[in-house]
Please model this.
Amino acid sequence: MTQCKLDMEATGEKNHKYIACERCAMQPICLPVKTQQSTTLSLTDQYLAKRTPSQKDHYLFTQGQPLTDIFAVCSGTYKLTKLSKFNEEKVLGFRFPGELIGEDALHPKTYTHNAIAIGDSSVCRVNVDNLLACSQAVPDLQLSLVELLTRQSFISQAQFESLIAKKSAESLVAAFLLNLKQRLSSNEQPSNELTLSISKDNIANFLGLRRETLSRIFSKFQKEQLIQQSKKQIIILAPETLENMANS
Amino acid sequence: MTQCKLDMEATGEKNHKYIACERCAMQPICLPVKTQQSTTLSLTDQYLAKRTPSQKDHYLFTQGQPLTDIFAVCSGTYKLTKLSKFNEEKVLGFRFPGELIGEDALHPKTYTHNAIAIGDSSVCRVNVDNLLACSQAVPDLQLSLVELLTRQSFISQAQFESLIAKKSAESLVAAFLLNLKQRLSSNEQPSNELTLSISKDNIANFLGLRRETLSRIFSKFQKEQLIQQSKKQIIILAPETLENMANS
DNA sequence: CGCAATTTTGACGTAGTTCAACACGTGTGG
DNA sequence: CCACACGTGTTGAACTACGTCAAAATTGCG
Model:
């Protein structure tokens, strides 16, 4: 199944835990495709560059730049940002292992935001021109591309809904924490413990809150024994209570 | 180009101004597809039902229902809603002529919200099973489907960004008005005059404001000569000023 | 260690909510 | 035809959650 598990040390990175290909949103178009010809297995080589590392603060792309690739996070975290006038950074979202980056640029053929590595990270990189060329030739691949896009459409919608149901700051934060938990837990063990790779400043920015407000809410949650935080480590003590707050 | 212009009176509706197919987001998969065979032109008949009317308050589908079709609005307006516990209606968005409905249900194969006609409206209806079957057989159609999905991905992202940059209620309303103007104007004449098919209650709900707040903001805009409203008719007097408020 | 960046806490101001009253149009039934 | 209810929209007054400003505490890093 996972054809790209072998070259872990080839990248030269230290101890990165790469996500399994089975759990990656890019998977539909990364699997070897079955065709009549025998050249099948090397098809993905035409457009896929596996596990490209990004160092901290590296820009995968910047807003306005013409589209060349779409990405899937293999390890680490990326943030998506946009500069408003005048030069305030607005955080549009975060991307964790298994999630896509840049797919919304397929239509305008131009990236509409920045994608920046938070800490050392890595991505699989899909060259769009080559992918489209291949998919023209291989119907099964094109079908997989449709599958990928429909899944992504659903994910985007879910994300939209979670934010538009904007209520109190508390419920926003509660929803965000549960969302993080879900996206960060390896599906085997949905642990209640999670490490914040993101700064609280970035989280506050993303949620449209002031950093002071976010801090106060964390403190309040701590006091009420809903969470327990030490430095970047967070343990969710009362998921059900947070759930209730999230859909208040 | 537009193959479906002839049956205007066939629907039996009074004076509906249907949007031109050229401006519809469904267009990529509604055009006749060129293939080698001579049966080409009737391909869309396999999955496309043109201009199906909906009366006021008609549900196109409800949340939880299994996916059968995706839709494009031909005339009128639809609202997308979801019921939270306990039974409060949350408005997730509006769909105007030329816009898609239900495409985000392609992946889970289940509609995740309700789509309700506001006033008498009409849609083109695409049967998903038949579409996918056809697209398997006709690569060009599948390519068009990819095109449709990538465009939609972009639109969803833009929508998401406009909401996440959530600032003051004033700027929200300013942005909403300009967004309406853009979506409602026939592209020939981007008029500053628009008719609110939607109730202010629904708008307030969508924007996450109280109806009182929305009313006050409209009154303020009126007083400041930014807009002029009489009943459901709204004239935007100072688009630039609103633009500035929108990206404050 | 020591400086800078990040996070937390406090005091105060304001935008938006809440509650309540009223105004208008429309449909319904007596 | 009027009386009444009901949905929709507007306005006022009091309340509160969040933002703002300022300063201290904690963490991270060379």
